C-alpha cells in the first residue's frame, strides 16, 4: 500500500476519534485546525472530509461543516496490515469488472463506485482518469465515465504489448549480474514449478498464482515505473480470464509449466536467443488461451 494512502487512513481515523468527542449537530472546525489535530496537510484533510460526507457523518457546505451523527467502529478505515492487497483500488476495480462480467459500454456511476470501494468521489475520478490510459474506460461527451470493456481487439492488443515488455525483460535478465536478487527468485520459481508438476493431477488449479509470480519475477529485472504500472494490469487481466475457461485446464497448465521451465533453463544458461524463443512460444500460447477464454465466456 502506498504511503500516501496509509497516511490518509491514519488521519481519517484520528479525525473520527476527534468527532466522537463532539455533540450532535456540532460545528466541525476549520480545515487548518483539523490539519493540526490529524497532523496532515489540508489536502489530506479535504479527502477525509469528503469521505465523511459520503458516509453521512457530516454536512459540508462551503466553510460550514456540521456533525450529523457520532462515528462508530464501522466507520473506521482498516490499517495496512488489516487491509492487505485487496485495498488496492486498481486491483479491486479490475476484479469487479472481471468477476461480475460488467459488459462493455456500461456507464459508470462514480457515486455508486465510491460507496462500493470506500473511497472519496474525487479520488475515484482521478483513478478513472489514470485508468483511461489503458483503454479500459473513457470519458463520456455528456459527462461521466463509460467502461469500454474487454473485447477481442483489446485482448489482442494487450497480448501484443505484453510480448514487447516481456521480451525486453528477458534481454535484461540474461545480462543481470550474478548477485542480482532475480537469480534467487528464479531458482525458487524452478523448484515451485517442479513441485507443482509432480502434483499436477490434483493441484493443477494452483497454476494461476505460480504463473503470476513467474512473470512478476522476470519483469522485476526492469526498473521502469511505466512497465511496472502496465504489468500489474496485464497480470490481473490474464489471471481472471484464465479462471473463466476450465476446459482442459490440467493439460493446459501442465504444458505451461513445461514452457516456463524451458525459459528458466535458457535464462540460467545465459542463452538469450533460446530464452527469447522460448518466451515467444509461451506468450503465443498465452494469447491463444486468452482469446479462447473470451470465446468460452461468450458461450456461457
UniProtKB/TrEMBL annotation:
InterPro entries linked: GntR_C, TF_FadR/GntR_C, WH-like_DNA-bd_sf, WH_DNA-bd_sf
Regions crossing the membrane: none
Keyword Transcription regulation in record: yes
Source species, domain of life: Bacteria
Segments forming domain GntR C-terminal: 157-285
Keyword Transcription: yes
Record keywords: DNA-binding, Transcription, Transcription regulation
Pfam families noted in UniProt: FCD
PANTHER family linked: HTH-TYPE TRANSCRIPTIONAL REGULATOR LGOR-RELATED, TRANSCRIPTIONAL REGULATOR, GNTR FAMILY
Protein name: GntR family transcriptional regulator
Species, as recorded: Jiella pelagia
Amino acid at each position: 500500500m502506498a504511503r500516501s494512502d496509509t497516511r490518509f487512513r491514519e488521519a481519517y481515523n484520528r479525525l473520527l476519534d476527534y468527532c466522537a468527542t463532539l455533540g450532535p449537530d456540532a460545528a466541525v472546525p476549520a480545515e487548518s485546525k483539523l490539519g493540526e489535530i490529524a497532523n496532515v496537510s489540508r489536502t489530506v484533510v479535504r479527502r477525509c472530509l469528503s469521505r465523511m460526507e459520503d458516509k453521512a457523518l457530516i454536512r459540508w457546505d462551503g466553510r460550514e461543516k456540521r456533525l450529523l451523527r457520532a462515528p462508530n467502529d464501522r466507520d473506521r478505515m482498516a490499517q495496512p496490515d488489516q487491509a492487505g492487497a485487496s485495498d488496492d483500488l486498481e486491483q479491486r476495480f479490475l476484479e469487479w469488472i472481471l468477476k461480475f462480467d460488467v459488459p462493455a459500454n456500461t456507464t459508470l456511476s462514480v457515486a455508486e463506485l465510491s460507496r462500493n470501494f470506500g473511497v472519496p468521489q474525487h479520488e475515484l475520478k482521478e483513478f478513472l482518469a489514470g485508468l483511461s490510459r489503458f483503454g479500459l474506460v473513457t470519458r463520456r461527451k455528456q459527462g461521466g465515465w463509460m467502461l469500454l470493456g474487454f473485447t477481442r481487439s483489446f485482448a489482442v492488443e494487450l497480448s501484443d504489448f505484453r510480448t514487447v515488455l516481456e521480451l525486453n525483460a528477458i534481454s535484461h535478465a540474461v545480462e543481470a549480474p550474478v548477485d542480482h536478487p532475480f537469480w534467487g527468485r528464479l531458482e525458487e520459481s524452478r523448484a515451485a514449478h517442479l513441485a507443482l508438476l509432480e502434483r499436477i493431477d490434483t493441484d493443477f488449479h494452483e497454476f494461476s498464482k505460480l504463473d503470476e509470480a513467474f512473470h512478476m519475477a522476470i519483469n522485476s529485472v526492469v526498473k521502469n515505473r511505466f512497465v511496472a504500472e502496465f504489468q500489474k494490469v496485464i497480470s490481473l487481466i490474464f489471471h481472471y480470464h484464465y479462471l473463466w475457461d476450465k476446459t482442459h485446464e490440467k493439460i493446459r497448465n501442465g504444458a505451461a509449466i513445461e514452457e516456463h521451465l524451458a525459459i528458466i533453463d535458457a535464462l540460467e544458461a545465459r542463452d538469450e536467443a533460446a530464452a527469447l524463443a522460448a518466451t515467444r512460444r509461451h506468450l503465443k500460447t498465452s494469447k491463444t488461451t486468452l482469446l479462447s477464454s473470451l470465446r468460452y465466456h461468450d458461450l456461457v
